């Protein structure tokens, strides 16, 4: 009995393994790469992260302004407009989607 397609499967597995090695370790990913318009619009009623943050009354003109936002206020807003319980939960989900896209899944 001859099984066809094993060469293609091997190529795909090798490619997946190579991509996984690239993701190994710690990565610095920008908020815009994590909270893409697609992610934000699927999980909130907003079309992008800028509109999302603006609707919450958060000023984010700089990294320092964003870091000054009280996390409890951000968490409360996230709970009110999404199914996430916190900012960290939302970032975690976005990170999982980012990693899956980098793996080609």
Describe this structure in words.
The protein has helices spanning 6-23, 31-34, 37-43, 49-55, 63-67, 71-81, 87-103. It has seven helices and no strands. The chain is elongated. It has 105 residues and is mainly α.
Short description:
This protein is mostly helical and 105 residues long. It contains seven helices and no strands. The model has no long low-confidence stretch (mean pLDDT 82).
User: What's the mean pLDDT score?
Assistant: 82
Q: Determine the strand fraction and express it as a percent band.
A: under 5%
Characterize the largest beta sheet: strand count, sense, and whether it forms a barrel.
Answer: none
Structural class: mainly alpha
What is the number of helical segments per DSSP (H or I, 4+ residues)? 7
- The first-to-last residue Cα distance is 31 Å
Helix percent reads 55-70%
In the residues, how many domains can be counted?
Answer: 1
Q: Topology as H/E string?
A: HHHHHHH
What is the CA-based Rg, rounded? 18 Å
Question: What ranges have pLDDT less than 50 throughout 5 or more consecutive residues?
Answer: none
Shape summary: elongated
Outline the secondary-structure elements.
Blueprint: H1 6-23, H2 31-34, H3 37-43, H4 49-55, H5 63-67, H6 71-81, H7 87-103
Annotation keywords:
single chain; 105 residues; mainly alpha; 7 helices; 66% helix; 0% strand; elongated
């Amino acid at each position: 009995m001859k099984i066809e397609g094993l060469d293609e499967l091997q190529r795909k597995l090798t490619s997946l393994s190579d991509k996984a090695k690239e993701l190994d370790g710690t990565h610095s990913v920008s908020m815009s790469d994590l909270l893409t318009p697609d992610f934000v619009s699927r999980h909130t009623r907003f079309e992008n992260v800028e509109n999302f943050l603006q609707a919450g009354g958060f000023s984010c003109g700089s990294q320092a302004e964003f870091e000054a936002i009280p996390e409890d206020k951000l968490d409360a807003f996230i709970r009110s407009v999404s199914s996430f319980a916190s900012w960290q939960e939302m970032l975690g989900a976005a990170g999982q989607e980012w990693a899956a896209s980098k793996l080609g899944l």
